[in-house]
Amino acid sequence: MALRHAVLAALLDGEYSGYQLSKAFDIGVANFWHALPQQLYAELTKLEKEGLVAGRQVVQETRPNKRLFHVTDAGRAELEQFAAAVSKPSFIRDDLLVKVQVADRIGTASVIEQLEERASAAEAKIELLGNLLRQLRGDADEEEFLRRGARIGPYLTCLRGLAFEQGHRDWCLRITAVLRERQTTDAKR
Amino acid sequence: MALRHAVLAALLDGEYSGYQLSKAFDIGVANFWHALPQQLYAELTKLEKEGLVAGRQVVQETRPNKRLFHVTDAGRAELEQFAAAVSKPSFIRDDLLVKVQVADRIGTASVIEQLEERASAAEAKIELLGNLLRQLRGDADEEEFLRRGARIGPYLTCLRGLAFEQGHRDWCLRITAVLRERQTTDAKR
DNA sequence: GCATCATACTCAAGAAAATGATTAGTCATA
DNA sequence: TATGACTAATCATTTTCTTGAGTATGATGC
Q1: CB closer than 7 A to strand D: which residues?
Q2: At the N or C end, where does chain B have fewer CB atoms within 10 A?
Q3: A39, A81, A98, A185: which to substitute to probe chain B, counting the most B Cβ within 10 Å?
Q4: Could you give the C-alpha distances from B158 to A40, A82, A99, A127, in angstroms and in order?
Q5: What is the largest CA-CA distance in chain B?
Q6: Confidence of residue B1 (pLDDT cuts 50, 70, 90)
Q7: Pairing verdict, β B53-58 and B66-71
Q8: Which residues of B touch A155 (CB under 8 A)?
Q9: Domain ranges of chain A
Q10: Which residues are in the Transcription regulator PadR C-terminal domain (chains A, B) (predicted)?
């Protein structure tokens, strides 16, 4: 029971199809949860059966028909209950960290490459989130928006996503530099 | 095939029993992976069957007997292959973020409480990791240790863990402040 | 002297998540 | 005019993770 609340949370801002949701889970929602399209479709089906979301068919001419979902009162109640319950702690879980842990014992070359790829992926995400934040707050500056903005939830989670990506990028670059220097030092011996 | 590599990575630094590993997964290893004891025991059994780790029985007088495991050559090879393969991107996945996303739509009181609990849990973790880092680098300062230290892998992953916890704490405190101020502003209206 | 904690591990069941394959029309582009 | 990307989804399977219970002994604290 975990993805379900992320879906409800994402759906709170309007009507979305499974497909649109899966796009949202690639960008904004990715700051607090991640899921593949198949998971979303499955979850939406379950949520609809339980009456927590409701969908309506939208017939389209040039595109396949779609079903738009919105949160029902029962869904909202479920979210409220969830928000009041204790949260599970959050964990880091990252292949690349596992590799760094053993990088000095096995080959470092490939790990360095991957760190650099990650760093530039993080850089791209940082820019994307920067734009998203600017868009969300409109004309106001951040302080102002956070004080009086109507809908700050998505902004707040984006802030966390941004900080996470920045931390990730900085770490990747630092570790790359460290491993690089050790490589040349090793070579000299 | 993910926990398996975290276990191999953790086991690379010496012999550990399942129980000891589960302790390591609460502290240092938690910086790159998380798992419950049951998962570890199960994974060790699998890894042993596949010949990637080997265990030996240690008979103890005052404590229950235990099995100490170490990585075999095949296990090392598996790790090397893993390190060379592409990594899956890392995701945030956090109940609390889901709650913040909807905090301005549903009740904020409980979310604020949870943010504060998280902040102090992060604070505790920060101290713990600070000590761990000091212990790992011994007398040397960080730059020096990273240049010439023998085993920097665990240090590097701890650095990421530390930065993550700091980012998490800062975010929690900031959001707490924002939500608090909005509460009082709302009340005045 | 009783309770609780720490060591050390096992088993089973169930929920959640990831993976892979498939369908089918539209649109842009090379 | 083939190629691939985009919209919109479904189905089946497998892997992974979580939850909960249980066993047994010694040490520590009040």
Answers
A1: A 17-20, 23, 37-38, 41-42, 45, 60, 63-67, 88, 93; B 1-4, 34-36, 38-39, 62-64
A2: C
A3: A98
A4: 34, 32, 13, 27
A5: 71
A6: confident
A7: antiparallel
A8: none
A9: 3-84, 95-188
A10: 92-179
**Cβ-based neighbours of B60, under 8 Å, separated by 6 or more:** B66
Mean pLDDT of the region A25-41? 96
Q: What is the DSSP string of chain A?
A: --HHHHHHHHHTTS-B-HHHHHHHTTTTGGGT----HHHHHHHHHHHHHTTSEEEEEE--SSS--EEEEEE-HHHHHHHHHHHHSPPPPP----HHHHHHHTTTTS--HHHHHHHHHHHHHHHHHHHHHHHHHHHHHTTS-HHHHHHH-S--HHHHHHHHHHHHHHHHHHHHHHHHHHHHHHHHHHHH-
Q: Would an 8 Å CB–CB cutoff place B5 in contact with chain A?
A: yes
Instruction: For A74-99, write each residue's pLDDT tens digit.
Output: 999 999 999 999 999 888 899 999 99
Distance of CA A164 to the CA centre of its chain: 10
* Distance (Å, whole) CA A89 – CA B75: 31
**Cβ within 7 Å of strand C: which of A 35-54?**
35-36, 38-39
Residue of A161, A153, A119, A123 lying closest to A136 (CA atoms): A153
Task: Specify the DSSP element, H or E, that contains B1.
Answer: none
Query: CB–CB of B83/A103 below 8 Å?
Result: yes
